Amino acid sequence: MYRSARYHEPLLRDLNEGQPPSPMPKIDVPKTLQRTRPVALPVLEELQLMRHFLHLSHMNYGVETGMYPLGSCTMKYNPKLCEAISQWDSFTLTHPNQDPLTMQGTLQLMYELEQMLCEITGMDAISLQPAAGAQGEFSGLLLARAYHEHRNDTARTEVILPNTAHGTNPASASMAGYSVIEIPSTPEGTVDLKALENTVSEHTACFMLTNPNTLGIFESEILEIARIVHAKGALLYYDGANLNAILGKARPGDMGFDIVHINLHKTFSTPHGGGGPGSGPIGVKKHLESFLPVPRITKKKDVFSFAYDYPQSIGKIKAWYGNTSALVKAYTYILLMGGDGLTEAAEVAVLNANYMKQKLVDSGLYDLPYRALRKHEFVLSADRLLNLKGVRALDIAKRLLDFGLHPPTVYFPHIVKEALMIEPTESESKQTLDAYIQALITIAGEDTSLSKAAPHETAVRRIDEVGAVKTPILTWKALETAVATPKKET
Amino acid sequence: MQFIPNSSIKQAMLNDLGVASINDLFSDIPPQLRTTALRLPAGMTQQAVEAHLRTLACKNKSFYELPSFLGGGIKPHYLPAAVKAVTGRSEFYTAYTPYQPEASQGFLQAIFEYQSMIAELTGMDIANASLYDGATALGEAALMCSRLTHKKTFLIPENISWEKKSVLKNYTHGAGITIRETSYDPQTGTCNIDALTRLITDQVAGIYVENPNFFGLFEDHVEDIAAAAHAHQTPFVVGVDPLSLGIVRSPGEYGADIVIGEGKALGNPMDFGGSTLGLFACRQEYLRQLPGRIIGMTKDQEGNPAFCMTMQTREQHIRREKATSNICTNEGLCMLAAAVHLAWLGGTGLTELGKQNFDAGHHLLKAITAIPGYTAPFSGTHFNEFVIHHPHASTLHTELLHHGIHGGLLLEPWFPALKDCILFGVTELHTPDQTKKLLTTLKEVD
Which of A184, B138, B192, B216 to pair with A32, CA 20 to 30 A apart? Predict the structure, then answer.
C-alpha cells in the first residue's frame, strides 16, 4: 500500500529563528523612495531551507512518483538528458539581446526545431514564442484577426467551438475580442456537421477544434469540416493538446487546419513543472505566415539571425523569444526519438489507451459513452456507480490516491456524466496499466465508506475547498486577519 | 525503445484486444490523410544526442566566455545552488498543475509561501501564482483595470520596452482598450508628472509607471502620480524589478493598487529570455478580478492545515469565455525558484543584494563618464541600469565584441530621440576584472 510522507511542515516564516531585523544600510536613493526596514522575509540557514523544501517535495506527486494519467495533459516521462542539457551554461547564461552572432547554437536549434515541428504538423511556418498552450491559442486568434482584417473582411466577430472544447479555447477567443458560439456534438461524440453548417457564416472568424477531440475520438469527418468552414471564408484552428495521438500517423496541416498550436510540455515531453514553464508554438499555412509574431529566425549562408521586418506581423505576444529551456528540451527529445520513435510513441499511447479502455469496459463497472475506438485517451462515465452506490467520480479520484496512483482528469468534458478522462501515455508499462485497471475495479467493489472518506494515505485528508473560498487565506499575513470573502462586486 | 516499455509487447497486447494490427487502431483516420513516415532523422542514442548538442552549445557565448553589460530588463545574477537543488526535485518538476490538492501539498504550500513573500515585497494584500512574464503581466493588468473601472483608456510611459508595448497592444486590442503614452522629462529621464496628470481623466481605466523605469531610473514622484490617479478613482499600476525592493519602499507604501514585474531575477537564469516569471500582486478587493491561479490555506477533514487552488470560478476551466484570463499553464517552476531564492536571501540578504546592484550601477556609471566622450544624458537616480551617450555608439558595440566584451543595448532603434545612446546593465555578478576590461576597452576604442 502507498503512503505519502506526512509532515506538519511549518510555514517558512515560522522557521524564522527570530533574529533581530538588521538596520537598513544608508543608500542614496531618492528621499520619497527610502525604505525604512528590510522586507519582512524569513531568515534561515541553508540546511533549514533545504529541509523545508525537501519535506515539501516529499508531499508532492510527480510523474516519477507514479502513473499520472491526466486526460489531455499527456503526462509522459521526461527524459533526464533533456533536463540536463537545458541547464548547460551555454544555453542558460545568455542574454536575449546578445548579438545573434554570439548565439548561433541556440538560433540553429530554434531554426531546426521550427522545421521539425513544420514536418510533424504539416504546417508551413512556426513561431516558438508563445509561453503555453493557451497563449498559443490566443496568438493564433490574433493571427486570424490580422488575416481577416488584412482582407478588409471585418464583420467576423465570432469564434465557433464544439461543446467538448478545452476551457482555454473559449477563454482565449473571448480575450481576443470574439464572441463564442458553442455547438453540440453528435451521439457519436464528434462535431455535429449540421450544427456547424448552420452556425458558420460570414461572421465566423474561426472554428477551433481538437483532433482527436477531448473524448479521445478522431474527427473522421475532418475534411468535410474543413470544407464547411473554408466555404464561408472562416479559418480552421487546431488545438494541439492531443497531438501525441497522431504523431507520424496524420498531420493537422493535411487535414485542412490553417493554424495550430503545439504543447511542447505535453507531446514533446518538456515537463509541466507543477504548472509551467510551458511552451506553445504556433504553426500556420502560407497564407498566414506574414502575420506571425516577430522576430522570425532566418538562415543565410549558414548564419542564423532574428528578422523583424515583417510589416504585417502581429508583433510580440511575449517578451523575447519564448521559454527557451523548453525549446532545448523538445529539440533534444525529438532527436532522441527520431521520426520513427515519435510514430512509435503515438502508436503505443493509442494502444495503451485502448487496452485500458477495453479492460475497464469489460469489467462492467464503468460505461463508455460515444464511439468505441479511441486514440490516446478515453472518457469513462462513473454514473452507474453513482446511481448504484452513491460513489462519485470525485470519490474515485480521491481513492486512487490511496493506491499511489494519480487520478485522471474528472468532470471533463462536460458532456459525459461523472467523467473520468484517462490518458495513460506511451511511457507506462503493461504492468502499471494493469495495476491502474485493477485499482479502478477494486474501488468500484469496495465498501463505499472507503472512497467517500478518501484519501487516507496522502499528506492531508480530503480538503475543504469550499472553506477556502468562503474565507480566503492567501498569504501569511492574511492568517492573522482572515475574514469571509466580501460580496461579489456589482 | 528506451522510453516506450510496451513497444516490445505491442502485438501481444493487440492480440489480447482482438485487434489484428496497430493500424486498425487508426482506422478512423481517412486513408487519404494517413502519413506514411515523418521526414525526420532516425532516433539517436543519448550519447550521440548529447554530443550533437555539445557542438551547438559551443556556438553560443555564455556570460563567462563573453561578459555582457546589456540592460533591458534581463541581467545575469548569482543563482544559489540551493535553488537548483530544490527545482531539480522531480516531485516538483514533473508534476502537473495541482488539481489534486491532497497529492500536491508540497507545491501548494510553496506557492502559498511565494504569494506571501511577493505580497510582502510589493506591499500588496495578495499575489497570484505567476503569469508568463512581465510583459504579459502588463497586458493582464490593463485588462483587469478595464474590468474594474469599465473604462477603456490605459496610460503608459513612453519609455517602456517596445516588446512590452507590442504585447500590451495585443492583449488589450480585443477588449477595445486604447493605449496612450505619456512623455518623459528629457532632463531627468523620468516621468513628466505635469504631462501625465493632464492626461488623467475620469475616462482612464488605469495608469502604469515603472520603477525603476526602462532607462534604469527611479521614479521619485510616485506619490504624486498615485494621488492624481486616485483623485479619479483610477487604479495605479507599478512595474518593479523585485531586486530593487530590497532598497526602496514597496509600491504599496506609495499608493500602488496593482504591482507587476518580470520576476526572473529571483532564482531564474537569463535563459536567453526564457524561464520568465510574471509577478502580479494587488489589493484584496480586486480578488475576484485577478487573472491566473491563486492558492489558499484551508483545512482537511481532520482539521489539519492544508492548501488548495481557490477562487477557481474566475478561471477558464470553470468559467470558460467569462474567465478573467485564458491562462492555464503558468510559470510554476520559475515561481518555485523565486520562492526558494527569496527564502535563501531573507530580508537582509535582499537588501544587501539590492545595495550591491545599486553600488555596481553607480560605480560603473561614474567610471564610464570619467572617460572623455562618454556622457550620461539623464540626471535621475538609477539602479543597476543606466544610459550612456557616445558619439559612435554602434561602432563601439562591434569594437567591444572584438575585445571579448558585450556592450549595452543600443536604444536608437526604439527611441529615435536617443541617437547614440546605450543602455548598460551591471549586477553583483560582474567581477572587478570584467568591469576593468570593459573600461579599458572603452578607453582604447575612444
Answer: B138
- Cα separation, A416 vs A68, whole angstroms: 21
Closest residue in A to B30 (Cα) is A220
Q: Which of residues 85-114 of B touch A (CB under 8 A)?
A: 85-86, 88-107, 109-110, 112-113
pLDDT category of residue A482 using cuts at 50, 70 and 90: low
Contact predicate B299/A467, CB 8 Å: yes
- List, as ranges, residues 407-426 from B with C-beta within 8 Å of A: 409
Specify if A123 maps to a domain: yes
Q: Give CA separation, B12 vs A430, B6, B52, in Å.
A: 11, 10, 36
Distance from CA of A234 to the nearest CA of B (A): 18
Is A484 among the domain residues?
no
A184-201 mean pLDDT: 97
* Residues ≥6 apart with Cβ < 8 Å to B398: none
Q: How far is B373 from chain A (nearest CA, A)?
A: 24
Return mean pLDDT, chain A: 95
3-class DSSP state for residue B158? coil
Mutation target among B56, B87, B429 for the A interface, most CBs of A within 10 A: B56
For residue B86, the chain A residue with the least C-alpha distance is A53
CB contact under 8 A, B161 and A319: yes
* Whether residues A97 and A243 fall in one domain: yes
The pLDDT of residue A56: 98
pLDDT along chain B (446 residues), means of 10: 90 97 97 95 97 98 97 96 98 96 98 98 98 98 98 97 98 97 96 93 97 97 96 97 97 98 98 97 96 97 96 87 92 98 95 97 98 97 98 93 96 95 98 97 86
In a domain, A122, yes or no: yes
Judgement on whether residues A399 and A421 belong to the same structural domain of the protein: yes
With beta carbons under 8 A apart, name residues in chain A contacting B317: 167-168, 412
CB nearest B90 (choices: A64, A73, A397): A64
Domain shared by A178 and A123, yes or no: yes
Tell me: do A192 and A333 sit in the same domain.
yes
* CA A402 to chain CA centroid, nearest Å: 25
CA A261 to each of CA A84, A120, A399, B325: distance values in angstroms, whole numbers, following the listed order = 26, 12, 35, 18
Position A55 in a domain: no
Return the number of CB contacts < 8 Å for A and B. Answer: 675
What CATH number has the domain bearing residue A286?
A: 3.40.640.10
Domain count for chain A, please give it: 2
C-alpha–C-alpha distance, residues B234 and B208, integer Å: 11
**Is B149 within 8 Å of B289 (Cβ atoms)?**
no
CA dihedral sign, ordered A9, A14, A18, A24? positive
**Interface ipTM above 0.95:** yes
Spell out the alpha helix ranges (H) of B232-306.
none
Same domain, A280 and A356: no
**C-beta separation of A373 from B28 below 8 A:** yes
Same domain, A101 and A205: yes
Q: Give chain B's domains with CATH numbers.
A: 81-341 (3.40.640.10), 346-445 (3.90.1150.10)
Same domain, A309 and A355: no
CB-based contacts of B414: which residues, under 8 Å, 6+ apart? Answer: B161, B162
pTM of the model as a whole: 0.97
Let me know whether A188 and A288 are in one domain.
yes
At B269, list the grid cell.
Answer: 537564469
Cα–Cα distance for residue pair A216/A376, rounded to 1 Å: 6
Structural domain including A440 reads 347-465
Across the strands, what pairs with B425? Answer: B385
- Give residue for cell 502580479: B280
> Given this model, what pLDDT does residue A18 score?
66
CATH number of domain containing A449? 3.90.1150.10
